Hints:
- There is one protein chain.
- The chain has 169 residues and is mainly beta.
- It has strands spanning 2-4, 11-14, 20-28, 31-38, 47-53, 63-64, 70-79, 82-90, 95-97, 106-108, 117-124, 130-136, 142-150, 153-160, 163-168.
- The protein has a four-stranded antiparallel β-sheet, with no helix packed on it.
Amino acid sequence: MYEFDPNDLRLQRSRTIVGFKVGSIAAAGALLYLGGEATDGCAMRGRTAMYPLQKDGEATSFWNEDTLFDSDVVGMKVLDGELLATVRYERSLGIETRTSLSDGYDKRWGDENALSRESALLYIDRTGRIAGRTNFSAGLAVFVRGLEMIGRRPVLYGAVGGIPAVAPQ
């Protein structure tokens, strides 16, 4: 991360969080929340993680999700002291589906038909505890790309089944 002087745009300093890729940023006063994915150094993809960053402090992990699936934060906003974050997941495990009553089971894997894509809207309190969660999946390949606010209502945008979509919450 690079910090610039807002008056003359000179670089003041830079900071690095090893093994972390930022996907979204939200400001809450003097605190900056970084959301994205953390990797263990060997993996191509990582797991959801968030870091609060004080103006003069170092980044320390605020919240991370312990999941088997690749995931990352793609949108964040601050509302009434809570952090709203949209997370997308990509399952790498097969799921069984039936095409008709007479057919046997057919395995579909994570790279086929985007059935492996899921998303969630998280409400995270100041301590890093999840205060609320809304999951989006139901086999529709819901893939949230970001989060905006209209007044006090979160609006998620992305794709459902490969078709662009917007969903007010």
